Protein 1
Amino acid sequence: MNRKKINDLVEPMKEGWLSLVYDYIMLIAIIIGAIPLFYREYRPLFLYFDLISGIIYMVDYVLRWMTCDLRSDKPKWKAFLLYPFTPMAILDLLSILPTFSLLAPSYRLTKAIRLFKIVRFTKIVNYFEPLGLFFVVVKKQWKMLLAVLIVALFDILITAILMFQSEQEIDPVTGEYIFKNFFDAFYWAAITLSTVGYGDFSPVSDLGKTLSIISSMLGIGIIALPSGIITAGYMQELNRRLKEEEEAEKEKDVS
C-alpha cells in the first residue's frame, strides 16, 4: 500500500470500504479505551481494553506521521520534523501515554498519566462531523468568544469585590462572615452570573441582595452571547459547506 492510500485510510470519513472499516476500528478503540474511566476499581478486563486501544493509537500515530507531508503545504522534511508538535499530534501522543502505565501500574507517575485517558475523547471529533463542525466554528470565532469571556470575568471580579466589601453581616449559624474570604465572593459572583445559584452562599443585607439581582440580570445577557455567536457561526459554516458541495456537483455534471 503506497503512502497516498495510507493517507486516505487515516483521514476520517473518506470514501471506500477500507477507510470505513478503519474509522470503525478507531471508534471502537476510543470507546473501549475510555470505558475504564467510568469505574473507580481497575478490573482485569480493563487491561485488555487499554492494551488493544493503546496499540491501535500507536499504529494510527505512526501512520499519520508517515503521511503528514501529504496533508501539509510545507516542504517534506519540515512537515515530518514539525508534525509531533502540531496540536492534533500532541493530543494523539497524550492519548497513547496511558498505555505505558501498563508497564509499571504501581508507579505513582503512571497513576497521573492515566488521567490522560480523557484526551482520548477528543479523537472522536475526527469521526463525528457535527462535533468537528462545532470546533471549526469555535476556532473561527475565538476572538469574539474570548472578548465575551473577558467581559464575563471582569463582571465577576467587580461584582465579587462589591459583594465582599458590602456584605459584612455575620452568619448567625456559624458566627462568621457570610463571605469568609475573597474567593468565596468570587465563587458566588461566578455562580450568580451563570444564573445557576447553588444557594451555598447568599447575601442577607439589602445592598447584597440588590447586587445579586443586578448580577443575575447581567448574567442572562452575558451567558446568551456565546450561544448567539456559535449559532451564527455554525449556520455560516454549514451554508458554506453546502454551497461547496453544490458547486462540486455542478462541476461533475458539466464534466
Protein 2
Amino acid sequence: MTGAIEDIIAIGQGFRIQDLFDIIIISTLLYVLLIWFKDTASRFVFAGISLLGAIYIAARIFHLYLTSMVLQGFFAILLIALVVIFQEDIRRFFERLATWRSLRKSHSRTAGSDLPEEITVLIESVAEFASKRIGAIFVIQGVDHLERHLKGGYELDGIMSQPILESIFDEHSIGHDGAVIINDNRIVKFGCHLPLTLNTEKIGKQGLRHTAALGLTERTDALCVVVSEERGSISVAQEGKIRQVKNTGELNKIINKYYKEKAPMENPKIPFYWVRRNTIEKGVAVMLAMVLWVTFGFQRESIRRDFVVPIEYRKISQEWEIEETRYNEAMVTLMGPDQAFSLFEPSTLKISVDLSSLIDGRQEINLSPDTIKIPSNLSLIKIHPDKINITAHKMYPADIPIYIKTIGSLPKGHILQSITITPKNVSIIAPKKTLNNKVFIKTEPIDLSRLTESTTMDVKIEYPPDVYFKSGHQPAAKVDVEIVKIP
C-alpha cells in the first residue's frame, strides 16, 4: 500500500505541462477512433486488436519479455494488414476529415428551425408507392461523399416534389430501377446503381433494392428508404443495418432523428453542446490515454548515456586556412528518462563550432552547451574534451606567373621557335609565410621529344598544397608550341 502511494506521489511530482498536452492529444485520437469504429462493420476486428494491445501493455508492465517480444513483432506485421482490413474505413475517415469544416457549417441549423417541407413530400411519396406497390429506393446523403460508390445515373439537381418522384419511378422511365440521391433537400441524381452488400444473412429473401441499400449504408453514413415492389412494405437501411417500418409515422421519426444527428441545432446559449454527447466514449478515451501515459510516457528515474558526436566547423572565410586538426568528434554525456532516449535519434547530434572570429596562429575554442542542440526532455552533463586547439593562417592575395616546365629535346632537324602559355598569371591566395618564400606555379612536364610540329595543348597546373585559387577552382591553361623544321 505504501509503495502504491509513493508511486502516485512520484507521478504527481513528475507531471509536466507537456504531459498534459500529450494526454489531451492521445485522448482526442482515441475518441475519434472509438466513434469511428462504433458503428462500422470492422468494429469487431478493432476490438480484437485492442484486446491484443491490452495484453501487450500488461506484458510490458509485468516484464513478460517473451510475450512482449512476440506481440511486438506481430504488431509490426499487423500495420500492413490494417491497411487491407480497414481500407474502406480509412478512406472514409480521410474524406470526412477533409470536408469536416464545410460540411459542419452546411448541415448545421439554428434553434427553432423545422425540418424542410421536402421531407414531408418524400414521406407522402413513399406511402403512395407502398400502397400502389411501386418499387423505389431513396438515398438521403449525410456527411460522407457518395460519388465513388455510385454507378451510372442522370444529373437532375431539382427541388423534390411528388410528381417528379412519380415520373422517375414510373415503370416506363429509364431510371426507375435505380436510386434517387437526395442532398440538401434536392434531387441530385436519379437512376443510380448502388454497391451490393456481401452480407447475405441480413438480406434473407428480400430483393435487389434492399441488397443495394444495405451495401451503401455499410460504406457511408447515408440513410436509404426502400419500397418493396412485391410486398408493398417500407424498409430503412442505416449504418449497415436494415429493418422494416410499420407505417409512415415511424418513418417520419427515423428521418427526423437522422437529420437531427447529421445537422445538430446551433444553440447560442450552449456553445459546447458537444461535451454532453458520447460521454462514455470520452471517458474511455481519457482513461486509455492516461493508462498509456503511465505505461510508456511517465518520466521515471533518469539515466545517463554517452554519445560520440561529430564536430563540424562553420562560417570559415576563404581568407583563412585551418590546419588539419585531430578534433573531429567529441564525447557527449546526456541525462534524462529512458522514455526520452527511446524517442531520441543520436544521428541528429552534432557539435557546431563557429569560426567567424578567427585570429592568426594557434588558438583555443571552448565547446560550450550552445554549440550542441539536444531535445528539451534531455539535459547535457558534459562534453569531452570541452576545449579544442586549432591553428589558423590568414590568406593573402597575389598574382603569380605560370612557369612552363619542359623535359627532353626536340628531334633532330627541328627548332623550338617559341612556347607560350595562356593565361600567363593566376590570382591566388596563400599564407604570408608561403608568399615570403616565393611561390612557384608550373605546368605539368611537357615532353618536347615527342613533338615534331607546332601544336596547342591543354595542360594541368602544379602548385603547393597551401595555395588556393581566388576563383575557387583550378584555372584551365593552354600551351602554344611553335616548331620550325630545318631544311
